Protein: Thiamine-monophosphate kinase
Organism: Cohnella soli
Amino acid sequence: MPPLDEFARIRSWTEHRQPKALLEKAGVSLGIGDDAAVIDGAPGMQWLLSADAMVERVHFLDETMEEADIGYKALAANVSDIAAMGGLPKHALISVCAPPAWNAMRIGRLYDGLYACANKYGVAVVGGDTTSAPEHLVISVTLVGVVEAGRAIKRSGAKPGHIVFLTGPTGLSAAGLHGLLMQSRGAPNVGTLPARLVQAHRRPAPSVKAGRLLLETSWGESLNDVSDGLASEAWEIAEASGAKLVLRESALPISGELASFASAQGKRALDWILYGGEDYVLLGTADGNRQVALQALFREEGLPFFVIGEVEEGTPGVMLETAFGVRKPLGKGGYNHFPEG
Ligand SMILES: Nc1ncnc2c1ncn2[C@@H]1O[C@H](COP(=O)(O)OP(=O)(O)O)[C@@H](O)[C@H]1O
Ligand SMILES: Cc1ncc(C[n+]2csc(CCOP(=O)(O)OP(=O)(O)O)c2C)c(N)n1
Ligand SMILES: [Mg+2]
Ligand SMILES: [Mg+2]
Ligand SMILES: [Mg+2]
């Protein structure tokens, strides 16, 4: 078998392995490949199912996250996948695999953060599993959400004539992570880390309200949450929709904190914005005719909404238009758990 990256692996393990009839009988309206599966429920409603794990050394280190932050973020990352379908998160199952260094008190603090997130987003924690582990902590969350039947917003709805939007800025989490790692290595020029960047990394704020607005108005046509990076998620929408997305560099939101921190660190803010990941904001598309109304609605609700590009006729893919108006293909770059296969 040729080397496979993360996404090719998932496909190779799961594609064409179950008869359509079985999936239909199980009420699977949308299976593997989107932010959450969509399963038929009582008349008028559907269930949304998603799972995401966090692993010590891969997603966090003692130096980057407090225990409570790990619990908070493990659930928030799942809430974000439900938001990315336009749904509401409801019930969570939590699995913890704990090595000796993680005693009961440390895991108790992890649960302080997890329940803080659960209570904030109205999620009932209803079970899970606990095991020992040899070396590193793993926390896996399975989250169930609900959505009005037939209304979940998929990655595959992008069409020419749409605008491309973000429900929040990207790049802050990666910048925060960079600062925390530099600080832990005793780098001399880090200074005081901007609190907003550290907060973005440790306690992401999934866009549940934004997802609901996009569904309730029927104005959200495609949606994906940004976990691996803006470029990677834009490619997922492009591929699922068979559409060409053009992102405009000059329209990408960049906060003052991010710009000044990047320049103080000798880093390109654009790299964090496009490829950093763990932003847990929503990237989506909507009919261009709805742009003004959407902007007004989000303003009224006090929520951010950034138009960052357009969907055009052409070969499916993602282009970046530079500030000088030059267009170039945007690489798929972003976080990949098995980049070389
Ligand atoms: N080991 C696995 N077995 C079956 N399905 C998987 C597995 N890993 C991921 N998936 C599915 O593949 C799709 C892509 O996963 P992922 O990139 O993790 O999505 P997301 O970035 O939204 O969390 C999702 O629909 C997910 O449910
Ligand atoms: C110590 C450390 N190194 C690197 C990262 C960056 N990082 C780890 S996983 C990841 C991508 C998102 O996680 P993933 O498990 O791919 O979530 P999913 O796409 O399934 O939602 C990123 C950017 C980090 N958070 N901490
Ligand atoms: Mg997702
Ligand atoms: Mg995932
Ligand atoms: Mg990922």
